[in-house]
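Posted in: Protein Modeling Q&A

I'm a second-year student putting together a small comparison for a lab meeting, and my supervisor asked me to include a predicted structure for Holin. I've never done this before, so apologies if this is the wrong subforum. The sequence is pasted below exactly as I got it from our records. If anyone can share the structure token output, I'd also love a short note on what stands out.
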Amino acid sequence: MLDMKQWYQSKTVWGALIAMAAPLLRHAGVEMGLAEQANLADALASFAGAFGGVLAIYGRVMARGPIDLGGGRN
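Accepted answer (user: helix_wrangler)
Welcome! Here is the predicted structure, written out as tokens:
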């Protein structure tokens, strides 16, 4: 488990969020089985990872200068 990723790229996190939301959705009249929940978690994790990549590229293109990491090197 040495591979690091952002929280929003985790299928486990999305699965937990969907599992918590499923009872609320059921009250609203939306039924989701375990297979649908798993598929939705996979899709959301993939989308979030892609969105993060797009956001990183956009941020670099729009940046006005380098990032100061506080190392005192110029």
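A couple of things worth pointing out for your meeting: DSSP finds two helices and no strands in the chain. The chain has a mean pLDDT of 82.
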